[in-house]
Amino acid sequence: MAVLNLRPLLGGRLVRGSQPFGLDTAATAEFLAAHGIRTVVDLRSGRERELLPWQLVPGNGVELLENPFDPAPHGLPPVSTAEELGELYLGWVRTGPAWVAASLRPAAHGTAFVHCSLGKDRTGVISALALLAVGTDPEAVVADYTATTAALPQLLTVMAQTWSAAIPALPPQAFNPEFMLLQSPEGAIRHFLAGFEREFGDAGSYLRDAGLSAAELEALRHPGD
C-alpha cells in the first residue's frame, strides 16, 4: 500500500503523513529515497508501532527516531465539538514542549518525515508549529490542517482493516467518521491557533524555550541554505 495523507512542508525539508500502511522493505526504501528522507520521526505509541513497524534496511543512512506521545495518558476527555478538539491540541503543547522540539529538530539537520497513525492530530500539531515558526500565514496553516479531510475516508478504511486484523473484538464503529476525534475541522485548528497565540505568543519563542537552538530555527526558516 502506501503512506497516506502525504505532503511536504518547509520547502520539502519536513514531510508529513500517515504511518506506513503495508510497505515492505523495498517499498519503504523507495518511499524514503523518493523524498530524500534522512530521518523518520515516529510519534506513535509502542502499541501502534507494533501493529505497523517500519521496515528499514540497516545501514541505509536513514535514522528512525521514536518520539512517542500518548495523546490521552489518563483517557480521552469528551470531544464532541471542533473547539474541544482544538483545546485537546493546546493541552499537548502545554505539557509536551520537549516532545515538540524533538519532533522538529531532525528537520533542521536534513529532510525529516514526521508521522503518527493518521497523520492528523499529533502530526497536525507538529506541522502547524513548524509552519508558524517559519512565518507562514495562519490561513496557510489552516489549509494544511484541513487538507487531511479529503484523505480521511481512505485513511479510516485502512485503519479499520489494520486494527480489526490485530484486534478481532474491535467494535465495528471504532472508526466511525462521525466521531469528532476522527475529523479535521477548520474550527479545531482555528481554536488551537488562537489559543496558542494567546498563551505562548509566537512559535519561534515557544520552540526556543522548548530547546531548539537559534541555528536550528534558522535552518527551518531557510531549508535551501
Task: Tell me what you see in this structure.
The protein is α/β, with parallel strands linked by helices and 225 residues long. The chain has a single domain (2-221), classed as Protein-Tyrosine Phosphatase, Chain A. It has helices at 25-34, 46-51, 82-95, 97-104, 122-133, 138-146, 148-166, 186-200, 203-210, 214-221, and strands at 2-3, 7-9, 14-17, 20-21, 39-42, 63-66, 112-115. The strands form two sheets. The protein has a five-stranded mixed sheet with strand order 2-3-7-5-6, with helices on one face. The chain has a two-stranded antiparallel ribbon with strand order 1-4. The chain is globular. The protein starts with a strand and ends with a helix. The mean pLDDT is 94.
CATH fourth-tier homologous superfamily: Protein tyrosine phosphatase superfamily
> Radius of gyration, rounded?
17 Å
The percent range for helix content is: 40-55%
Give a quick account of the main beta sheet: strands, pairing sense, barrel closure.
5 strands, mixed
Count of extended strands:
7
The largest sheet has its strands arranged as: 2-3-7-5-6
Could you tell me the CATH topology label.
Protein-Tyrosine Phosphatase, Chain A
* Backbone shape: globular
Number of helices: 10
Layout of secondary structure:
Elements lengths: L1 E2 L3 E3 L4 E4 L2 E2 L3 H10 L4 E4 L3 H6 L11 E4 L15 H14 L1 H8 L7 E4 L6 H12 L4 H9 L1 H19 L19 H15 L2 H8 L3 H8 L4
Helix pairs in contact: 3-8, 4-9, 5-6, 5-9, 6-8
